[in-house]
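[audit] Reproducing an earlier prediction to check determinism. Same input, same settings, fresh worker. If the tokens differ from the archived copy the diff job will pick it up downstream; this log only records the rerun itself.
[audit] input (150 residues):
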Amino acid sequence: MRTYSPKAAEVAKSWREVDASGAVLGRLATEVARLLRGKHKAAFVPHMDCGDYVVVVNAAQVVLTSDKAQTKLFQRYSGYPGGLKVRTYGEMLARRPEEVVRVAVKGMLPKGPLGRQMLRKLKVYPGPEHPHAAQKPQPWPLDHSAHRVA
């Protein structure tokens, strides 16, 4: 018996919509990375991009547990001396919430050209509106009940 390996033309990519309101950042990012990689499909192969397009809405309402919003740091380095920019996650959530979600998902994808290709299929928006209504994204349920932060 031979192992089945899907061809690139055989992989069907659909659009998924994930609502991030009230979701814990890390748990949201793992589910989104799983959808982008295609691990939820029966024909998953690790060397190919067989995942779906993912639209994350309400990224501004994502939650960080404990006091990570004040203690966890978001660092960027320009490559020049003195070019290190440091902000807390709370400041980044207030300023650019879509970037916080994108970076969290990026860390959970494969490194290299395949991971960059998968990351291009991620669309993140701070509010409930997005311009991808023509693609008819299907809502993807997240189980927030066990991980709510009071």
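[audit] rerun output stored. Observation attached for the diff report: Residues 14-63+96-142 form a domain with the Ribosomal Protein L13p; Chain: A; fold (CATH 3.90.1180.10).
[audit] end
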